[in-house]
Amino acid sequence: MARTVFCQKLQKEAEGLGFQLYPGEIGEKIFNNISKEAWGQWQHKQTMLINEKHLNMMDPEHRTFLEEQMVGFLFEGKEVEIEGYKPVEK
């Protein structure tokens, strides 16, 4: 049976992640407060950010930048700004 969480990003009860996908305290917070759907949205944004900014995941500064973007997107209602990318108007 899938576990549900109250997703802080989507502000609704939704299916939670199957296991902690990110290390440490932030990973625990994501596991407990972010849905599978919202994590999928972040994965999409993360891929675009890595590609556009040519991020190297071996570089601690790049990882810190990405983590800041992730926390902002998932918990602070911030949109990820990707140059040349405009979200579809609803």
TrEMBL record:
HAMAP family linked to this entry: Fe_traffic_YggX
Keywords: Iron
GO MF: iron ion binding
Record SUPFAM superfamilies: YggX-like
Function noted in UniProt: Could be a mediator in iron transactions between iron acquisition and iron-requiring processes, such as synthesis and/or repair of Fe-S clusters in biosynthetic enzymes. Necessary to maintain high levels of aconitase under oxidative stress.
Any GO BP: cellular response to oxidative stress
Cellular component aspect of the GO annotation: cytosol
NCBIfam families given in the database record: PRK05408.1
InterPro entries registered for this protein in UniProt: Fe_traffick_prot_YggX (IPR007457), Fe_traffick_prot_YggX_sf (IPR036766)
Protein name stated in the entry: Probable Fe(2+)-trafficking protein
Family indicated by similarity: Belongs to the Fe(2+)-trafficking protein family.
One Pfam family named in its UniProt record: Iron_traffic
